[in-house]
Amino acid sequence: MLDELSQAVLSRDEVVRYLKGTHGESSDVAHERVYAYLEEMRTTQRYTLYRALKHPVYPILRKITRNVEHIDRAIAATAGGRVIYASDHKSHTDYLVEPLVLDDNGIRPPIIAAGINLFAGPLGLLHRYVTGAVPIRRNTKDPAYLITLKAYVAELLRAHDLLFYIEGGRSYSGELKSPKTGLIHAAMQSDTENLVILPMAIAYDIVLEDRILAGQGVKRRQRPFARELAEMMRDAVGYRSRAFVTFGTPIHTSEYNSQSRRDILDLAHRTRDAIGLLYKVTPTALVAAAMRPSIERRDLEARIDGMLDQLRERKANLSVESGRQAVAEAARPFVRRGVLVVEQNRFRVRNRMMLRYYARTLDHLFAPIVSRTHASPTVAADNTSLED
User: Fold this and answer.
1) Which 3 state secondary structure label does DSSP give 241?
2) Is 55 a member of any domain?
3) I need a surface site. Which of 60, 65, 111, 163 has the fewest CB within 10 A?
């Protein structure tokens, strides 16, 4: 038997048209495919169980100190209407840390859009039956799936907020990636009243799976999550980090035309740029960006001081005031992680790939500011599919 949400999806005009066989399939085949995707997307949120549940990665959460900035913006946004949280994506711990930040402050929990690869094993049960995550097939162009997902998101927003990662998947290089517009497009087409996008950024001193990500640089293939989880648990031995979660100013979707591909792209870039400025500039990122193969402490501190001057001009979200403070706070975690070697007052690189990974997390803050007011409509058209 179909639940109420699925029935609402099936009654939407775009789904009704597809079920009539408008895409070259028979009506029976179209029904079969849409019903299968609806079953795949079905999720249940039992958020009161989230904190108490002893799932496989719970011990990791205790090693991450949560630091929250501007939570008042999230409180105000949820009081005013429906909210879409748009975040960068650094780690598998993001979708554990960020909902807990909301819960810590009594904010209603959002549904999370998560990659379908995360829905196997114990963590998949957690997502499907506790946190209420929706599995997303990121690399499909199947019209049956895209139509069903857009309709599902539209109906979901009638009763829930949504949290999604604007880059799609995690950044394997460390840099903030280009925005993906599929879910923004789906949300805009829902015609939800008082709908806002709330940019939010998450940053870590040390990313739990930094070795895994830095070792690949770019995502060439989907690795089995069970294998990656085992590697993360191995790297969690001795792991300690701060997580900085920063909320931005709400962006009212009513300012944009949901039928305009250019407007959707402009909204996505505006959101991504806001996230970039919210992103906490950590001591480890500063040291990584300023490092040379071998450098004296005072020279490293001086280089960071110069970088901080530039970052202040960009109104970046800084966690330190000086090069001396950055080096003092980053040295121990980088040495413990095997990234640097410190011999008296000289720093040497031990793991170049991991150092580059952390350095690239600041690339967007040093890049030239580009105006997108006159973005090409053709470019916009190429970036609105849900495969993003």
Assistant:
1) strand
2) yes
3) 65
Range(s) of the domain holding residue 129? 43-280
Nearest 5°: CA angle at 262, between 260 and 265? 115
Helices (H), the chain: 4-10, 13-19, 27-41, 58-61, 71-80, 94-104, 121-129, 143-156, 182-188, 210-216, 225-235, 261-278, 283-290, 297-313, 323-337, 352-359, 363-366, 377-381
Give the span between the Cα atoms of 206 and 144, in whole angstroms. 40
d(CA 108, CA 142): 33
CB neighbour burial string for 323-356, b if at least 16 within 10 angstroms, e if fewer: bbbbbebbbebbeebebbeeeeeebebebeebbb
**In contact, 192 and 271? CB cutoff 8 Å:** no
- Same structural domain for residues 131 and 235? yes
Q: In the chain, helix, strand, coil percent, each to 5?
A: 50, 15, 35
CA dihedral of 179, 131, 95, 37, whole degrees rounded to 10:
-40
The predicted model scores a pTM of 0.87
Q: What is the DSSP letter of 167?
A: T
Rounded Cα–Cα distance for residues 292 and 242 (Å): 25
Mean residue pLDDT across the chain: 86
In single-letter form, the type of residue at position 203 comes to A
How many Å apart are CA 382 and CA 293, to the nearest integer? 41
The Cα–Cα gap between 27 and 69 comes to: 51
* pLDDT tens digits along 146-187: 999 989 988 889 888 999 999 988 899 999 999 998 889 888
The token duo for 193 is: 């009243």
Provide the CATH number for the domain around residue 155: 3.40.1130.10
Count structural domains, the chain.
3
Residues 276 and 303 in one domain: no
Q: Of the candidates 308, 269, 302, which has an alpha carbon nearest to the alpha carbon of residue 285?
A: 308
HSE, CB side, 13 Å, CA atoms: give it for residue 387: 9
In whole angstroms, how far apart are CA 356 and each of 70, 342, 370? 30, 18, 24
316 assigned to some structural domain: yes
Same domain assignment for residues 131 and 203: yes
Cα–Cα distances (Å) from 308 to 285, 293, 314, in that order, read 12, 21, 10
The answer to whether residues 82 and 19 belong to one domain is no
- pLDDT tens for residues 308-353? 999 999 999 999 999 999 999 999 999 999 999 999 999 999 999 9
